[in-house]
Design brief:
The structure holds two protein chains of two kinds. By secondary structure, chain A is of the alpha/beta class. Helices cover 35% and strands 27% of the residues of chain A. Chain A contains 13 helices and 13 strands. In chain A, a hairpin with a 2-residue loop joins β11 (269-285) and β12. The termini of chain A are far apart. By secondary structure, chain B is an all-alpha fold. The chains are: A alpha/beta, B mainly alpha. At the A-B interface, α1 and α7 of A face α5 and α10 of B.
Chain lengths: 399, 366
């Protein structure tokens, strides 16, 4: 009986506390929120220009088929939060930023001020969750890229997010998935340099901004990912092409299944699809040097090794050797770029620190300065495992 | 008087959840870089030694209640004074841990909410458990331990196999010098969380004693350390040092980054639930220890009234803590460990010496 009265007392207390909590905890109803899908950040005239793309909830309704998938708002401010505040001022809904999928940075921002301030804000803000992707728009302001009509998706930011998921799955692995925490972590360690995927406009901007862009069979205006932007500390240093970026992904053991094309031993071209790649970048201390070993298992998917007399045949080993030369050349070009721009996007210093901590600790400054200039030896082994469903090529060339 | 005797398993469950308590929230010290697991292992060895020291003291003095042990060592008034200091110490730490959890929830779930509104319902649940007695707390921990260990194992597994975990960042190991490691171990790691096991000195007399019980007491300390070590390595592998040390709660941030197929995400919410379970046990143990001391010193019969007053004190202590998370953590990790030292090591060591001298004196007198 005594415990029953206790129980009643505790129930009354619990109800009182629940009431208190419901009054004190800030909350918003679903219909008062505007769910943010993408954020664009630019810097012009010493001010941040922030654009915010939100979902249009009406599009999910029964009559929503013809409506556009979302809206983009833009405002500027001395800081990113101030710009956000200027966007939300006078808007009927509260921006819910936790649903953000992509953050698009402008070329001007990354090459001028650098990315540190922007990253710091996005990591610091409790309202922005970590699982958002970073992309750079090379030739268009972020608000333009976010406002583009893209096929298959109602919102360009969703389209970008899915595009990067595919690039991650098929091409660059985790290199395609740069989040603010990872970038800040590399910048804080200060040994290697960061890379961020970039997009470039293909086709006409005006066409892309109009709904006509997705009302035709032939899509003319797109913003595909073109490669990785390479940084020196927190500022943009240079751009890697798609092929160079793929080569970097191979060196970092991030590739899954990629297509590569190379010249045939005598004439024509052939293509392979990798089934397994494995790379080792080994820094040596005495004498300082870098040894690179790459092993690729591949399937032949296209063979255009035409021969003048049609009798001369090409062995798979010859094709493999040809590809080995191409890859070795590409890797050396990547190292040359790293040296030319003095940016360690390959992560040699980080590797040296992790593999030879004793040697690194003795003279870290010297390693920081000289490691990019050390000689590099490249050993590539390509094995073409299958030739698809056919034993012999169209030209009768394969042996 | 509470006559309920807890089993060895219940005690071990309490100890494990107590150790995990707020440790994984704010007790992860990454100052030693890639070697951050080493202080935890050293702390574990100190913790096991310390706990067996407490057991030794009780075994030598025939398992008296805590205040009786104090009386036997320091006399009636000395025991009253030291007991009161311990009661307030336990209530203060309970208030601190309560504030830890309030801050962590305002960081991850209830942004911009006042911390007291988080503390209040949490504290009421704990007060209700204390009212029900040690049996309720120990049985709760007996159930919770399976949930906590199982869910932690799943979270850690998801973390380690995720593509966000980069194993190369865990190395190189053993690069920190003794000075750096020593600075982390003393006084922080040996006092928090291992030294906090001093609260179990009040609970140990309620243990159902058996011959083999000494064999098992190190297990919860070792499991707790293993889980903490795995969490530290997970954080280093995902966020990397020194950057990981910039976060207030790096474990939560690391979990936040883990996603699978763009579908399984926000694992930090599960960790928050686990932390609440461990926090409930930790605050309950401190609260119960304080309550028992007050009960033994004052022989007050009004159980509900006493608990209500103590609840008010814990809430007051939690409100008196620093208002910003930064100063709260600075206080907790840099200043409070020096307060811990006499309570966790000094006084128990004195009790141990007195008990030993008395035992030797009795033997020689006989």
């Amino acid at each position: 009986m005594k415990y029953f009265s206790y129980l009643r007392l505790w129930i009354v207390l619990a109800i009182l506390i629940s009431l208190l909590i419901s009054i004190q905890i800030p909350k918003s109803r679903m219909n008062e929120l505007a769910f943010v899908s993408g954020i664009g950040i630019d810097k012009k005239d010493a001010k941040y220009e922030v654009s915010v793309q939100i979902y249009n909830p009406a599009v999910f309704g029964k009559q929503g088929g013809d409506q556009i998938g979302g809206y983009t708002f833009k405002a500027s401010g001395h800081t990113i939060p101030e710009a956000f505040q200027n966007i939300s001022r006078g808007f009927s809904h509260t921006f819910y930023i936790q649903t953000t999928k992509v953050v698009v940075l402008s070329n001007e921002l990354v090459s001028g001020e650098g990315v540190s301030n922007t990253l710091d804000h996005l990591v610091r803000s409790l309202r922005v969750r970590s699982n958002k992707l970073f992309l750079i728009s090379r030739d268009q302001p972020p608000d333009v890229v976010l406002s583009m009509f893209q096929p298959m998706e109602k919102l360009s930011s969703v389209s970008m997010s899915k595009m990067m998921s595919e690039v991650k799955r098929l091409q660059w692995g985790t290199l395609a998935e740069t989040n603010a925490e990872k970038l800040m972590s590399i910048l804080t360690m200060g040994r290697s340099d960061i890379v961020i995927p970039y997009m470039e406009m293909r086709g006409d901007v005006e066409e892309g901004l109009s709904k006509k862009n997705i009302e035709k069979f032939l899509i003319e205006s797109r913003v595909p990912v073109q490669g990785l932007a390479v940084f020196h500390r927190d500022k943009l240093a240079t751009w890697l092409t798609f092929n160079e970026s793929t080569m970097l992904a191979i060196l970092k053991n991030q590739t899954r299944s990629i297509y590569m094309t190379s010249a045939c031993p005598r004439s024509g071209h052939f293509s392979i699809r990798t089934s397994d790649t494995h790379a080792q970048v080994i820094p040596n201390t005495d004498p300082p040097s870098i040894a690179i070993h790459v092993r690729i298992d591949a399937n032949l998917v296209a063979d255009d090794c035409a021969h003048q007399d049609k009798k001369e045949q090409v062995s798979l080993d010859e094709l493999g050797s040809s590809l080995e030369e191409t890859i070795e050349k590409d890797i050396r070009a990547l190292f040359a770029k790293s040296k030319a721009y003095q940016t360690d996007f390959i992560g040699l210093r980080e590797l040296m620190y992790r593999k030879h901590p004793g040697a690194w600790k003795q003279n870290p400054d010297e390693w920081m300065e000289k490691l990019l200039d050390t000689p590099v030896s490249v050993h590539v082994k390509v094995e073409i495992v299958t030739t698809g469903a056919n034993k012999i090529s169209r030209n009768g060339g394969l042996r | 008087m509470n006559t309920y005797k807890i089993s060895v398993f219940q005690l071990c469950s309490l100890m494990l959840l107590f150790l995990l308590g707020s440790t994984l929230l704010f007790g992860v010290n990454l100052e030693a870089g890639e070697d951050s697991a080493i202080p935890l292992v050293v702390g574990m060895l100190v913790g096991i030694t310390l706990f067996y020291g407490y057991l030794y003291v009780y075994a030598k003095s025939s398992w008296p209640p805590f205040v009786t042990l104090l009386r036997a060592s320091f006399g009636k008034y000395g025991a009253m004074l030291i007991g009161t200091v311990y009661a307030f110490y336990f209530l203060y730490i309970a208030g601190r841990v309560l504030k830890d959890f309030s801050f962590s929830l305002t960081q991850f779930m209830y942004e911009d909410s006042p911390t007291w509104i988080i503390s209040l319902p949490f504290l009421f649940v704990i007060a209700y458990s204390i009212l029900l007695g040690l049996e309720a707390i120990s049985r709760s921990s007996e159930i919770l331990v399976f949930l906590v260990v199982g869910l932690y194992a799943v979270l850690l597994l998801l973390g380690f196999v995720s593509d966000k975990f980069e194993a190369q960042y865990v190395f190189p190991l053993f690069q920190s010098n003794a000075r750096t490691l020593g600075g982390v171990i003393f006084p922080q790691v040996i006092t928090f969380p291992y030294g906090e096991l001093v609260a179990f000195m009040v609970i140990l007399p309620s243990l159902k004693r058996s011959k083999g019980m000494y064999k098992h007491m190190w297990i919860p300390i070792a499991i707790g350390t293993l889980m903490s070590v795995l969490v530290v390595e997970l954080i280093i592998g995902i966020l990397h040092v020194p950057y990981a040390a910039d976060f207030y709660i790096p474990f939560m941030k690391a979990l936040e980054l883990i996603t699978y197929m763009n579908f399984i995400q926000h694992l930090e919410l599960f960790a928050t639930l686990l932390q609440l379970s461990c926090g409930y046990v930790k605050i309950s143990v401190f609260f119960y220890a304080a309550y028992e001391i007050v009960r033994q010193i004052t022989s007050v019969k009004n159980r509900m009234g006493t608990i209500a007053v103590l609840t008010g004190i814990v809430f007051g202590f939690s409100m008196l803590q620093a208002n910003t998370l930064m100063s709260h953590l600075w206080m907790g990790l840099k200043i409070v460990p020096y307060l811990h030292l006499p309570m966790q090591y000094g006084i128990p060591f004195l009790i141990g010496c007195i008990v030993l001298i008395k035992a030797r004196y009795r033997r020689s007198a006989a």
